Amino acid sequence: MTNKHGEGGAMATIKPTLIIEDCSALGQISTVAAVTILQSFGETTALLPTSLLSTQTEGFGQPAQLSTAPWLTQASLHWRKQGINFANALVGYIGSAQLIKQVDRLLVTLQPRQLVIDPVMGDQGSLYPGLPSTYPQLLQPLCRRATVITPNWTELCQLAGQPVVEPTTDHLLGLVNQLREQEITAQIVVTGVKQGAQIGCWVVGDHCPVYLPVKYFPGHYYGTGDTFAALLTGFLNQQVDLRLAATKATAALTTAVAETSQLPVAERRYGLRLKNLLATLAKGVEQ
Questions:
Q1: Which residues form the Pyridoxamine kinase/Phosphomethylpyrimidine kinase domain (predicted)?
Q2: d(CA 256, CA 140)
Q3: Does the pTM exceed 0.90?
Q4: In angstroms, how far is the first alpha carbon of the chain from the final one?
């Protein structure tokens, strides 16, 4: 028997945080990291994996891959029928023009209040292998829906349709103006910007850009962008302002990078070690 509160008989008060990105079955990458981090904030999560991979795409050869496109629509319809609402959403790697359009339609339907988009598509001056040269332009309509976007420097240049140049404040302001002309009005956090012996992010909100530096650990650490975007989403969900959320997310990410830096290089392929980061988050939630 059902009643006005739904099939379960209880009024729904939980509004899950929606996570839309690829899911690697091995290690702490993308969706696995995002779920772990957001649940440590006390969030209930809902997952729409854009693809299922046996491993991440770097360091393990060609992964086995399963398309989830039909399932995404079916899951969304099921949630709507159950009256499930989403307060917040995080979108990461998508990977194809068709899926970008599908995700766009799903977001229109599910209508999260806050939308963080990590426009994952490149690094170190280039698009990731397998993505078409038009991929940045394909992401622009989706980014127009965002409240916050978290590109790295390469992705910011690509999204603005400009060549990748050295990061400076003047170049940053020019790229932001390009995005505004494209009607991308989201607040912007540019990640992984190295300056001298430090690395950090630029926060572009309603005022002048602010650079938030932390200690730089040499080497390549897989999944830092995924982890940062999840951390930022978690802190924003606590209703703090963007600068404070980015400050906290950067500090927490540094904890994970420091822990992972103790591993042999080959073992870093599994993603960031999250033990110390999660312990820090748990203390914050308890307080």
A1: 75-262
A2: 31
A3: yes
A4: 41
| pLDDT tens per residue across span 136-176 | 999 999 999 999 999 999 999 999 999 999 999 999 999 99
3-state secondary structure of 261: coil
Which numeric CATH code is attached to 17-276?
3.40.1190.20
Q: Which residue has the tokens 């690509």?
A: 158
**C-alpha neighbours within 13 Å on the C-beta side of residue 222:** 21
Token reading at 89:
């959403």
Give residue 80's identity as a one-letter amino acid code. R
Average pLDDT over residues 60-77: 94
| Cβ within 8 Å of residue 12, ≥6 positions away | 5, 6, 83, 84, 85
Question: What is d(CA 87, CA 226) in angstroms, rounded to the nearest whole number?
Answer: 20
State how far the Cα of 173 lies from the Cα of 98, in Å rounded to an integer: 32
Instruction: Kindly list the domain boundaries of the chain, sorted by start residue.
Output: 17-276
Pairing assessment for the beta strands 17-20 and 148-149 based on DSSP bridges: unpaired
Distance CA 202, CA 179 (A): 15
Angle at 34 between CA 30 and CA 35, to 5 degrees: 120
pLDDT digits (tens, 9 = 90+) for 14-42: 899 999 999 999 999 999 999 999 999 99
